[in-house]
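Lesson 9: reading folded outputs for more than one chain in a single document. The general rule is that every protein is listed as its sequence immediately followed by its structure tokens, and records are never interleaved. Here is the first one.
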Amino acid sequence: MAAATPSAKALSGPMVPTQMLGQTYMDAVITPHRSLSERGFIILITVVTLANCCSAAVFIYMGAVFVPFFLGLDVLAVIVAFMASFRAARRIERVQVTARDVVVTHEAPNWSRIVWESPTAFTRVSVETEEDRTIGLRLALSDRQVAVAQALSPRERGEFAKALQQAIRDARLERG
């Protein structure tokens, strides 16, 4: 299950668009939660490999010499799946609010892409709730909208929605 906590970081470096000058009311970085550390991954792969080696020895003893190749493919598939998961965990979502713009970017170590940009004065925050749980959070402008903070748990998404609404409200007050 993906979960994360938004954390505010100072604007700096080449990732900051030039139009985002002025006071920043929110610069939240949302990162997916990794439920398994690299050390835990190594332990898991060791256990899976040892179990497959023991199974392979039994099958070789029984005369089934091709089974160990399939057990090796099993270990390889688990490693590839976790590598893809670890790569996806390095992607972040950044939500920035200034008096001028609301910008949402998706960033990875090698790239950054703006997925939403709108004037703060006209941006709405749409919150979908179900039984006191925030199940969806969207930024909207006219007929356009984008989902944000999907990596957060419902409780964290609700807290993030309140902080985002407050940041937009504060940014609008600056413009007068």
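And here is the second record, again sequence then tokens.
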Amino acid sequence: MEAQSARTLVDDDGWFESFEIGQRWRHARGATVDEVENQMLTKLVMNSAQEHWNDASMQGSEWGSTRIVFGLITGSLTIGLASQDTAEQAIKELGLDAIRFTASVYHGDSIYAYTEVLEKRDSDRDDAGVVVFQHWGATSEGKQVFECRRSVLIKRHSHWSLS
């Protein structure tokens, strides 16, 4: 999960040509997970696990004494933080694979996203190519909490740029 640098790709606008296999970085922004995100989304998707809703049920549990953040919030936040650098020129999301929740997240934890470019290939469109990213989410203490592989169809600078 170590990044080569703490830079972002936004200055380059994230075209297909911008990415190189093996390239790694930590994205510039982080976000703190508050109770509102956990409660709202967990209830909207009707996840009724008491570990997300009920402080009393957590007392003395193997996970600690406070509610756990719903994993899909952690995953969505990680991908969202990575999107500034990996989806500015996206045409569409093609898939998420190898999704893993590797540690619990709690209200007040700050999440940071890391990315590695795993694959880059032509697509069936002349104006775009496919980039496969490995994303990780980690707390401010460096504890990895999430990982996934994400495939994105990204515009080619040579076809879309006005400059």
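What the second record shows: Residues 4-10 have pLDDT under 50 and may be disordered.
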